Amino acid sequence: MKATIFFPILCCFASFLHAQLSIDFANGNFQGWSGDSSKFAVVNGALQLNDNNPAASNQSYLSLPAATTSDAVTTWEFLSSLTFSPSTTNYPRIYLSASQSNLSQALNGYFVQVGGINGDLDALQLCRQDGNNITVLLNGRAGGAGTATVNVRVRVKRSAAGLWTMEADYAGGRNFESEGNVQDQSYPSGTHFGWICRYTATRNKSFSLDDVLIDPLFSDRTPPILLGVETQNEQRITLRFNEAVDASTATELNHYDLNPTAGSISSAQRDAGNPNHIILSLSGKMQNLTAYTCTVTGIRDAAGNVAGVQSAKFTYLEIGKAAEGDILISEIMADPTPALGKLPAVEYLELWNKSTKVIALDELQVSNGGTPVRIGTGLFLPNTFLILCAPENAAGFQPFGPVQGVSGFPALTNAGDDVSVRTTNGLVVNLVNYDDDWYRDEDKAQGGWALELISANATSDCPGNWRASVDPTGGTPGRINSINNQITDRSGPRLITAVSTSTQELLLTFDEPLDPVTAEDLKYYALTDGISPLDAVLQSNKTSLRLILNTPLQNTKAYTLTLAPGIRDCLGNAQSSPQQLLTGLPQAPAVGDLIVNEILFNPLSGGSDFVELYNKSQKLISLRGMSLINRQKTSGGIQSTITTDYLLAPGRYVAVAGSKSNIQQGYIVKDSSAIFSNALPTLDDDAGNITLRFNNITLDSFNYSNKLHSPLLEDEEGISLERLNFDLPTNAAGNWHSAAISAGGATPGYTNSQVFRPDPANGAETIFRLEEAKFSPDGDGFQDVLLLPYQTNTPGYLANIIVFDINGRQVKRLARNESLAAEGILKWDGTTDELLKARVGVYVIWIELFEPDGGKALQKLSCVLAGRL
User: Fold this and answer.
1) Which of 139, 539, 764, 777 has the most CB atoms lying inside 10 A of its own CB?
2) Could you say which of 272, 293, 317 is where a domain stops?
3) Which among 179, 182, 245, 176 is positioned nearest to 213, based on CA atoms?
4) What is the CATH number of the domain that holds 155?
5) Dihedral angle, C-alpha 246, 251, 257, 258, nearest 10 °
6) Contacts for 389 with CB less than 8 Å, ≥ 6 apart
7) Is 523 among the domain residues?
8) What CATH number is given to the structural domain containing 538?
């Protein structure tokens, strides 16, 4: 063998010494090559396969140390000769750059294969080897290596940028023609050049190699550099170097130190698939989210260069599986317009990883009730936020925190939606079924403001745990919510209704969502007559619960349902005192059982009408299916039907409102369970009718008018009309009056501010009487009008009634030959005939009665019109 190596100067590459390798085997030996040396020989000035004892199928190789790098343009040349046409069982591979000397084992590098693929279409192929995997980078001219014999000279060049070109002269000369080019930078350096022959027994001496040239050749003078550390699991780490390390020194444990420790380093070995890597095994376990420093000393590369002390820092991250509650939906921007100008005007969700786990995003999906879509790739670290949005909007959120553009990001409905985070296995990690009532601010519900979770320790699918953001930007994506831990609801749940759905089932409705654990605990429920529950099942809305009874309920019988203290709402607030509610099988109401007791027909701008009903019977009355009708309208919103399962007990009030939340915000509400939302017929602001009908039977009907309001009111908007007496006919004169200003202008769901309760102690000595002789028409809800209840002993009475002051001057005529009913109420509201406010003082009520038989009677009553001091 004749080998020539040139070392002309130290090149500009500080790490290597420039050289060139040229071999033509003219001296008759191949000294310096390693591998299957006994199966090769130099014959006629060329290196030839010379296997004297071949098997049916064989593989033999030789390799030579020849370090190359992409730091400079590198050229490889060789002459490959075959005395046969290659086949799939007979072909050579010439390794230009290999990561190790043993070419028969897994390695990383590049080689040229001569034929062996397509018969007479065989070509030269430039290939990359990754361990045991082969990738064809470039195919040469089809048929170029498919001739009866092959004698091809090949030249391959690699630029510093990783551009490979391959040229060939199929006559064995130097008239090279291009075979193509390809870009690849997978392995910028290699340590060995070599040749491997795959052959059958008949081709045991039919391969030869000659005229090898490698320019430039580099001699490594720099020790290996530690690039970083990767974790495989809690007890294995991989050290990555910039070049292949020596296998023997890699196993010496005294070269390594880990701080903090995870037990001891129990073993070290070079990675069989990548000689640039060393794998360390630990006797103990690394702790999740802990920062470590690995220090390495004395590691040697294949050229014998020894490194000094090197360190690399890394954090061990243990990828965990997401469980229910690990990740919370912590912010929802469903309606981004009109934007406030600070945040991107697009929909987004914010997630918070409240667990101690590192969770892979590719195992998570998001859904709005439709088909879930994958969130993406990457890691979700503990106690961090992640903003989700459409991919095209992701750049706009980058200033606010970590953001993930989700392909197919689900649209968020403004009025409410069912949003969930799930694993790819279908586990629901978090679900929020929001609606626009959760904003608790009608202006913010119109758009531009995000819904924010208040407490991560309370149920996230709980209306009381959400509110509109108070941050001036409209939301807080990527950071702590503006209302964090500002829970305002501190009271436990209240039972609203207990409606029988069959003889052995009750449907209980609460004023807020419940905690499932306490809600389904039977110890909290008891009924009279020894009836006990068999099962309690919380419904999907979490405000309703189905109670299964062990004994059937009896018709026409009322039962008392008692709730013991302890049932919690979805925020964890416990019911602190017992609650009782009448229940049973409801009975159909008769005429007069259910009456209209209060009506708000002229609300404040943007407000809601309501109609209050009162159960004056001893029956349990179900309101579902009852109709509310405005008989004075001939078109438009004439009629509505109650669709709520609401059971009204004897002596109880309920307000049916177009918007419950609006009434709660605008008026004093003593019992929120005594109000529910339902469509109403259109109630005009000046006059109209409200009729209550069930099964085509009219239960009650009231013709309202703004003329029934007190003339002393400065503004009738937002003031309801209240019934004064349950027992008088609904439309009896004097039976309605304006609600007291001091009571807020209305009393939805509870006793009226203006109410007349006859005193049975006042006998029937006279037809008219004064319940209270003193009144003060100041709108405070206390004795605002002078009431003159009457009761006749026979029909046909006529009355003239005049109010005089103490000097005998007429102030107000209350009645002129007015026909009296069997009973009723007349009233003086404190105004004069000129509709001015009368002065404070003593007044005389002069009553002239004409009896049915022609007789006449006079009655005088004194009263005091008082005022504030």
Assistant:
1) 777
2) 317
3) 176
4) 2.60.120.200
5) 110
6) 344, 346, 347, 348, 349, 397, 403, 404, 405, 406, 409
7) yes
8) 2.60.40.1220
DSSP label at residue 519: H
Residue 249 host element (H or E): helix 247-250
Provide CB contacts within 8 A for 611, sequence distance 6+. Answer: 596, 598, 599, 600, 628, 655, 656, 680, 690
Q: Compute the average pLDDT of residues 48-76.
A: 95
Residues 354 and 424 in one domain: yes
Q: Which residue has the tokens 């003082």?
A: 841
Q: Are residues 215 and 114 in the same domain?
A: yes
Token pair 């600070």 is found at: 342
Instruction: Report DSSP state, residue 866.
Output: -
What Å distances lie between residue 447 and 334, 388, 441, 482, CA to CA? 8, 19, 11, 17
Query: Does any domain span residue 12?
Result: yes
Nearest-angstrom CA–CA distance, 850 and 857:
7
Q: Phi and psi for 255 in degrees, rounded to 5?
A: -80, -10
Q: Is the CB of residue 737 less than 8 Å from the CB of residue 710?
A: yes
pLDDT in tens, 692-743: 999 999 999 999 999 988 776 778 999 999 998 888 899 987 788 888 776 7
The pairing of beta strand 358-360 with beta strand 319-320: parallel
Q: Is the dihedral angle over the CA atoms 32, 36, 41, 47 positive or is it negative?
A: negative
Q: How far is CA 688 from the centre of its chain?
A: 47
Which residues lie closer than 8 Å to 149 by C-beta, 6 or more apart? 81, 82, 83, 84, 85
pLDDT tens digits along 524-543: 999 999 999 999 999 988 88
Per-residue confidence (pLDDT) for residue 765, from 0 to 100: 44
Contact 575, 565 (CB under 8 A): yes
135 in a structural domain: yes
CB 250 within 8 A of CB 272: no
Which of 198, 181, 204, 306 has its CA nearest to residue 252?
Answer: 306
Contacts of 682 (CB under 8 A, 6+ apart): 630, 633, 636, 637, 638
The span from the CA of 256 to the CA of 254, in Å, is 6
Residue bearing tokens 């429920």 = 525
The strand pairing partners of 17, in sequence order, are 219
The whole-angstrom separation of Cα 141 and Cα 362 is 43
Contact indicator for 405, 390 with CB cutoff of 8 Å = yes
What domain range is 245 assigned to?
A: 226-317
Q: In this structure, are 148 and 213 located in the same domain? A: yes
Q: Is the pLDDT of residue 648 over 80?
A: yes
- Average pLDDT score over the chain: 90
Q: In whole angstroms, what is the distance from residue 491 CA to residue 573 CA?
A: 6
Distance in angstroms (rounded) separating the CA atoms of residues 595 and 592: 6
3-state secondary structure 808-837: CCEEEEEEEEEECCCEEEEEECCECCCCCE
Q: How far apart are CA 174 and CA 414, in angstroms?
A: 75
List Cβ neighbours of 561 (8 Å cut-off, separation of 6 or more).
Answer: 495, 498, 506, 508, 525, 526, 527, 580, 581, 582, 583
Same domain, 310 and 324: no
Whether the model pTM is above 0.90: no
**Residue 286 DSSP class:** P
The answer to the question of residue 454 being in a domain is yes
Per-residue pLDDT, averaged over 239-267, amounts to: 94
Total residues found in the chain within this entry: 869
pLDDT digits (tens, 9 = 90+) for 339-386: 888 899 999 999 999 999 999 999 999 999 889 999 999 999 999 999
Q: Which of 220, 247, 274 is the last residue of a domain?
A: 220
Mean local confidence (pLDDT), 679-685 = 95
For residues 463 and 431, the answer to whether their CB atoms sit within 8 Å is no
Q: Are 544 and 507 in contact (CB under 8 A)?
A: yes
> What's the rounded Cα separation, in Å, for the pair 219 and 222?
9
- On whether both 359 and 450 belong to a single domain, the answer is yes
In the block, residue with structure tokens 């968020």: 412
Residue that is written with structure tokens 């758009």 in the block: 447
